[in-house]
Amino acid sequence: MAQQPSMRRHSTMGRRRPVLLPMLLPLKALRQFQLFPFPQGQVTVILDGKVLGQWGPRQPAISSVTVGPGPHTLVLRHPLCYSQQVTITREMHPTKIARRLRWRPASLIVNTAAEATIAVRLLEGTMRSLTGTPGQKLDVAFPRIWNSSTLRAKVIVIKGGKSLERHVTLKAGRTLRLTM
Fold this sequence. Notes:
The chain has 2 domains: 32-101, Sandwich (Immunoglobulin-like), CATH 2.60.40; 106-179, Immunoglobulin-like, CATH 2.60.40. The protein is 0% helix and 56% strand. It contains no helices and 16 strands. The N and C termini lie far apart (72 Å).
C-alpha cells in the first residue's frame, strides 16, 4: 500500500531537541478530481469554503483538487455567470468534473421620451423580440448553451411616428445604458 509522509514530533537521545520525523499516511484515502469549467477564464475555485485560486491548465493556476475521505463542497465562480456548486460524496471515485456555468442575464436601460415604445430584437442565439419601458431595466437572458459572453441585438425606439434603430452588443452580467 502506497504511503505519503507527514511530519510528527519525536525527541532524540542526547540533547532533547525535537526532531521532525515522517509519519506515513495511506495515499488511497486521497482522491484527485480534474476540473473542466466553461467558460474557462476568470473561474475561481472554492473547496469547502476556502478559495484555492483561479482555474487554469498550468501552474500556479488550479486545474485539479485533491480531497480526503468524506464529503466535500466545490464551488466554481465566474464574474459573468451564476456560481455552480458540486458536492463530492464519499463514494465518488476520482474523475473529471466538467461544468458549464450559466451566463447571468444582460441588462439594458433605454433613456428616451416617456411615450416611446421600445423593442429589442436579438440577432443571434434564440431569435426573439422583447419589449421594454423607457428608463426601466430590461433583462435579456442568454440561451442555455451559449459559448460567448456577448449577444448582438437591435434596439428599436418608436416615438412620434418615427423609428430609431441602434445595433448593440449586450454582455452577460452587465448593464448597458442607451439614450435615444
